[in-house]
Amino acid sequence: MVNLPMRTHRISRRRLINVLLGMLLVLPSQSFAWTEQEFFALDKIVARPFILPKAPYDLDAQTIIGTPKAYTMRKKDTLLDVARYFDLGFNEIAGAYPDIDPWLPTPNDDIATEISLPTWWALPKSANEGVVVNIPEMRMYYFPPLEKRLTNRSVITLPVGLGREDWPTPTAKFKVLGKTVNPTWVIPESIKQERIKEKGWTEDFIPGGSPDNPMGKYRIELTLPMYRIHDTNNPWAVGRLVTHGCIRMYPEDIAQFFDIIRLGVPGEFVYQPVKIGVLYGKVYAEVHDDIYKLIPDLWAEALRVVQESGYEDMVDQTLLTTALMQKTGVPMDVTKQERSQLDGEIASADDEEAGNGTESSYQ
């Protein structure tokens, strides 16, 4: 990303991006291979199993969830449509393919292109309870209540859009306070003044059901004043810093999530650009951009996270440095070679069936 020397340049660029996104939203649907009906037909709420470590160097733990997937690009596919289909945010697909035009990824429609999708993640460090949003990766994790008769844990993960650099989503704890269908957006005074200055819009509110309502059809209220988890009238906002601090979800995601989230559920917004996970005896580092520039020394932050993970003696410093430099947002194996060879046979068919490979739709 180019660092512009003056803030006024940043603002003009942001406005230009918003204008371009608005233009894209009015393009005819025939321009794309996917339809809203196809997205809503998908079962996005998938329970992914995990196993927390019981002690330091617990190699039976599995805190990497999901699996990488391959996809063959079709005629008229865009990376944004593919990301949405596989429940990835724009930041995740752009991070995996920074040199590909997300709107025109296949210049020659006659040539099939297979891409790998970053559909696996390390769990953020948390209480593993309720809603956890990791701000730097723009992804939410929901840990359903553990039923008394069950001992296996599972998690649901979904991409989100977050607050702009000048309206950042804060780190904070909260509880789910309420749920509203077709909410009216009562525009806060500060946002109203911004809308008047930038666009000349003077509305005090936008009614529920209006296509201009950024809340969309579903809104989840939190005990944090001014912050909500809600639908969006612009699906391409997921995986971007475009809101005034609220959490936006794909319409089909929140339509399903709205039914399962319960009032009183705890949650927190965390800021973890570096995460450490373990799978089949190997340690992985997942590194994201420090999107709000809150971490003065990412290397020191990584060392702290590695030490707190309990797997410090298993991590190769050179591989960790590579992960920090690349910032792919995808788990990267950082296990010391001698340890990796020793434990390489842990991953068996039985392990895969019992652990990371067993995903199910959440009911």
Describe the protein's architecture and organization:
The protein has 363 residues and is an alpha+beta fold. It has a domain at 49-67 and 272-361. The chain is built from ten helices and 21 strands. The chain has helices at residues 7-25, 36-40, 79-85, 90-96, 189-199, 251-260, 298-309, 317-326, 337-343, 349-354; strands at 46-50, 64-66, 69-73, 113-117, 120-122, 130-134, 139-143, 153-159, 162-163, 172-181, 185-186, 205-206, 218-222, 228-230, 241-243, 247-248, 266-270, 274-279, 282-287, 332-333, 360-361. The protein has a ten-stranded mixed beta sheet with strand order 16-14-13-10-17-6-7-8-1-21, with helices on one face. A three-stranded antiparallel beta sheet has the order 18-19-20. A two-stranded antiparallel sheet has the order 2-5. Helix 3 packs across helix 4 (90-96). The chain is globular, with a radius of gyration of 21 Å. The two termini are 41 Å apart.
